[in-house]
Write a sequence for this structure.
């Protein structure tokens, strides 16, 4: 799957689960680990975990490789690493505190 197709897939799947404020960050040349980050918010710990779990489930169905999942126990910030795209599903409090959009825009 091409990077743009993967981004569209991720955005579609997190949107299916009603994630809020979905943002794509192009980090080519800024990160050696990935090309794009997708950041979105969940309304509760359970919601963030559900959004991430659904994304992982659908990615596996599509034959994609999941390189890693972090934070699924607490649910404050769940990271799903799909290689070219890293997905951050965060609570609004965590998202406001870490300000990934501001950090990676610089």
């Amino acid at each position: 799957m091409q990077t743009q197709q993967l981004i569209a897939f991720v955005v579609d799947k997190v949107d299916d689960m009603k994630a809020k404020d979905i943002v794509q960050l192009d980090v080519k040349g800024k990160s050696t680990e990935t090309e794009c980050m997708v950041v979105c918010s969940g309304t509760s710990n359970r919601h963030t975990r559900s959004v991430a779990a659904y994304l992982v489930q659908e990615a596996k169905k599509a034959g994609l490789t999941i390189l890693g999942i972090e934070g699924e126990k607490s649910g404050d910030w769940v990271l799903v690493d799909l290689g070219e795209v890293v997905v951050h599903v965060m609570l609004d409090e965590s998202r406001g505190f870490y300000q990934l959009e501001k950090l990676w825009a610089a």
Observations:
- The helical segments are 3-16, 45-61, 92-98, 100-105.
- Residues 45-61 form the longest helix (17 residues).
